[in-house]
Write a structure and sequence with these properties.
single chain; alpha+beta; Cytochrome p450; three-stranded antiparallel β-sheet; globular; signal
């Protein structure tokens, strides 16, 4: 009986989706043929997405739809994906992300925080130059702590974990200040929060085969019962209470002679809405957690891809080493580079951009259609449809990337003068339009300062002696977990 009910529900859901897909009022993108009812294209999309999407485009054109996880999703190729990125009145990446991971449930005190992008730009991005020295000192300290001198060759496997710890130090310093960033508890929260918060997102949405987005509603219920982020929020609140009390007391005591802390936390305390007599510590903690979520993982992930590509291709290290020797001449007596030195790392910047180009997922940057939309070619997508960008269609296109787009050519971007932070039709890692990632400069600066120190300090190679490419899970690419050998330069 139960099996009949479940099977009947699955068939009804399939018919419902197919009926919506065939709405005669809209000129929908073609639905790719599939052999298996209910699961549709899900299996082949997860097991062979690169070849599958290539064949789909060849047969069906620039825009086509797939039946994935019980729902019709539309894939948009290079000719029209800029429409998705720039038409924010019709496509919303935030809704798509919320469906994947209910961050509003995880960080429930953020309901009124509507200007997060503006806050990040004003409080962090516009002050990057002032954070330069602190960023380098923290990166150098953390590198020494987690990698060490390596007088004898040292093998580090799953470098992503190490990179996360290293990246946390400068981020924690910028967001909560020098004093709090010295606590191991704080560093652990910065490094572990994203992983713990995102655990719910790795659950395959099998319940969506029964009814579209059923998995999302179940995930919301699970998070209300057990929120893995709570422990990190409690740690932050505990330390924030002590730190905020101390700052308010010192400001009152010393007046104009008080030395103002230069960090994101102090900027929050100086907002007009901040009431020192009625402090909402949970809201402040959630604001910080939001920026931890969007900064730590992406930066650590990118840096891991780059260092894996660097160690996999030792033939380029000497050239990069010589460039960094020249750059180091601008450092002060403590080895700290001026902010402007970042612009002198042109070969390193090109290497980073090439690594990120070839490590991005095959299909990514999902958006949800907020109202019926007609593409320039006349095809239409209905409101509430999930749209994914076919990024491989951009990164493997010779007209956009130059000759041999599949090959790793680290200095191909020198001629085009395209920096690692520059968005455009041929580089989608940071999105596009006015909603492009506002923190991309911070992320790339960290990667460059870290690699400057690493290239000068160590000889590098993969433990296997081979090129270690990204690990594939469906259409997504993750950094290899292969070992890297660090050895002190003689």
């Amino acid at each position: 009986m139960y099996q009949s009910v479940i099977l009947g529900s699955l068939l009804l859901a399939t018919l419902y989706v197919l009926k919506r897909m065939r709405d005669p009022k809209l000129n929908m993108p073609p639905l790719v043929r599939y052999k298996f009812p209910i699961i549709g294209h899900t299996y082949i999309y997860l097991t062979n997405s690169e070849e599958f999407l290539k064949q789909c485009k060849k047969e069906y054109g620039e825009i086509f739809s797939l039946y994935l996880w019980g729902e019709v999703k539309t894939i948009v190729g290079k000719e029209h994906l800029q429409e998705v990125l720039k038409r924010d009145d019709s496509f919303d990446a935030g809704i798509a992300f919320e469906r994947l991971l209910p961050l509003s449930v995880i960080l429930k005190h953020l309901a009124k925080f509507q200007n997060s992008t503006k806050v990040l730009k004003e409080y962090v991005m516009n002050k990057l130059k002032t954070y330069t020295e602190r960023m380098q000192k923290n990166l150098n300290f953390a590198t020494q702590k987690y990698i060490g001198d390596c007088d004898e060759p040292k093998i580090i496997s799953n470098v992503y974990d190490t990179m996360t710890k290293i990246i946390c130090y400068p981020i924690a310093d910028i967001f909560v200040g020098k004093e709090l960033s010295q606590y191991e508890e704080i560093i652990n929260t910065f490094s572990d929060f994203t992983i713990d918060a995102a655990k719910i997102s790795i659950i395959p949405p099998v319940l969506d085969f029964i009814y579209p987005r059923l998995q999302y509603y179940i995930n919301c219920i699970i998070l209300k019962i057990y929120n893995p982020a709570v422990k990190h929020q409690r740690i932050l609140i505990k330390h924030l209470k002590n730190q905020i009390y101390k700052r308010l007391q010192e400001k009152e005591k010393y007046g104009d002679s008080w030395k103002r802390p230069a960090d994101f936390l102090q900027d929050l305390l100086e907002e007009e809405s901040f009431d020192p007599n009625n402090i909402n510590y949970a809201e402040i903690a959630d604001k910080i957690c939001l920026f931890i979520f969007v900064s730590i993982h992406t930066t650590s992930n990118s840096c891991t891809h780059v260092i894996m590509d660097l160690t996999s291709r030792p033939e380029y290290i000497q050239e990069l080493y010589e460039e960094q020797l020249e750059v180091r001449k601008e450092a002060d007596e403590n080895g700290i580079l001026p902010f402007e030195a970042l612009n002198k790392m042109k070969k390193l910047d090109s290497f980073i951009r090439e690594s990120l180009r070839l490590s991005e997922s095959i299909s990514t940057l999902p958006h949800v259609v907020t109202k019926d939309y007609t593409f320039a070619n006349g095809l239409q997508v209905p409101k509430d449809r999930a749209v994914h960008l076919y990024t491989d269609d951009v990164y493997l296109d010779e007209s956009l990337q130059g000759p041999n787009p599949k090959s790793f050519e680290p200095f191909r971007h020198l001629e085009t003068n395209a920096s690692a932070t520059k968005i455009g039709k041929n580089f989608l890692l940071f999105g596009g339009g006015k909603h492009a990632c506002p923190g991309r400069q911070l992320a790339i600066n960290e990667v460059k300062f870290f690699l400057h120190n690493v290239i000068l300090k160590y000889n590098l190679r993969t433990e296997s002696g081979k090129i270690e490419g990204p690990k594939m899970i469906g259409p997504r690419k993750f950094p290899s977990e292969a070992g890297i050998v660090f050895e002190k330069r003689k």
